[in-house]
Amino acid sequence: MRVSVPGKLLLFGEHAAVFGYPAVGMALSRGLTVALQPSKTADATSQPLTIEIGDTKEIPDTVIQRFVAHIETVARSFALSPLAGAITVTSELPIGSGFGSSAALCTAIARLLAPNSRDPHTTWRIAHELERFFHGTPSGIDTGLTTLGGVQAFHFEASDAPRRSNPSVDYAPLPATVAVHLPDCVLTVGSIPRERSTKELVALVGEQRRRAPDTVDAMLSQLGALGETLLRGDSTDSADHTVSFGRAASEAQTILRELGVSTSKLDEILEIGVKAGAVGGKLSGAGGGGAFYLVCAGEEEASRVRRGIEPVVTGAGGTVFSVATGR
Ligand code: PMV
Predict the structure, then answer these.
(1) How far, in Å, is the centroid of ligand 1 from the Cα of 15?
(2) Which candidate, 21, 83, 174, 296, has a CA 20 to 30 Å from the CA of 2?
(3) What SS3 class is residue 221?
(4) Measuring CA to CA, which residue among 262, 96, 94, 90 is closest to residue 190?
(5) Distance 235 CA to ligand 1 centre (A)
């Protein structure tokens, strides 16, 4: 059995979502494929699951073995049959860069565990529980995008406390989603290698919030509110909508930089992109390097921006591509 799942690009609300503020993101046309070769015997205990992730030596065997054990625990908690056989993963997404490779893997495994489930929310819930292996306290937005696809806004119940003070509680609530219309524009998207993991970056923001709750909450709330620019844009002219999208992205980037989750290389790339003609841009995902996007009015601007940033991005060991929106 083969399952293909899209990657994702967070547009607004990363880090803010962890504390219950809204977020917006889109599924990407590139993604990840998982193929399961079932074992010949029906006895899952004598033929344990193996996972081979092609083209990457970055993931140690011990981590894969612990993930296999986590899959078994999650399957049991949903009363699903355990998987047995050999899983091969092939990815068009750079691993661990903010394009949702771990979320896409969790969605794909959720589909293998519950192949007959017709309810995307059931798949999302299983994927979300699987993703807790990678992030501890994921907000659910990454697996929401890789499971539901399209462009989605996520809303959590209003709360001034971290949503999951007790991460051991099973079946953490998932956010509500609303489909979003993006302006007709082109995003120049790329990523550079990460200096820190999502877990470390989420912990860094949590630590700052403990030290200065009022200041950091105001920043997180503003990050959430900036995503609303996309929701408000339906009735306005697409060009205006693109401009407000780009400006909101740059404003969010300023806050993310103040929170310490950007890097000087990301800031440099975004600055070059804006000088080359992008309306604005920001990091996407947890930061510390990783994914970013620049909002461009059309294909012409996007190729100028791409040409401008490519030497720095590839020099840093990263990649660039384009995504057309709103069509
Ligand atoms: O790991 P990434 O880059 O896909 O980022 C996840 C987004 C965060 O808001 C930082 C964490 C979360 O669970 O929402």
Answers:
(1) 6
(2) 174
(3) helix
(4) 94
(5) 30
17, 220 contact by CB (below 8 A) = no
Q: For the chain, where are the alpha helices, taking DSSP H only?
A: 61-77, 101-113, 120-135, 141-148, 198-211, 213-226, 228-232, 238-258, 264-275, 299-315
Task: State the closest ligand 1 atom to the C-alpha of 99, by its place in the atom list counted from 1.
Answer: 4
What single-letter amino acid sits at 5?
Answer: V
Predicted TM-score of the model (pTM): 0.90
> Which pLDDT score, from 0 to 100, does residue 185 have?
94
Dump pLDDT digits (tens) for 50-99: 998 876 666 788 889 999 999 999 999 999 999 999 999 999 988 888 99
Mutation test of ligand 1: which of 99, 102, 135 has the most ligand atoms closer than 8 Å to its C-beta?
135
188 pocket-lining for ligand 1 (C-beta < 6 Å): no
Work out the pLDDT band at 162, boundaries 50, 70, 90. Answer: very low
> What tens digit of pLDDT does each residue of 257-302 get?
999 999 999 999 999 999 999 999 999 999 999 999 999 999 999 9
CA–CA distances in Å: residue 61 to residues 52, 56, 70, 109: 9, 12, 14, 18
Enumerate the β-bridge partners of residue 52. Answer: 88
Q: Tell me, using a 6 A CB cutoff, whether residue 18 lines ligand 1.
A: yes
CA of 69 to the centre of ligand 1 (A): 23
Reference 107, options 93, 126, 84; nearest CA is 126
Atom of ligand 1 nearest to the CA of 16: 9
Residue holding tokens 């069509």?
A: 327
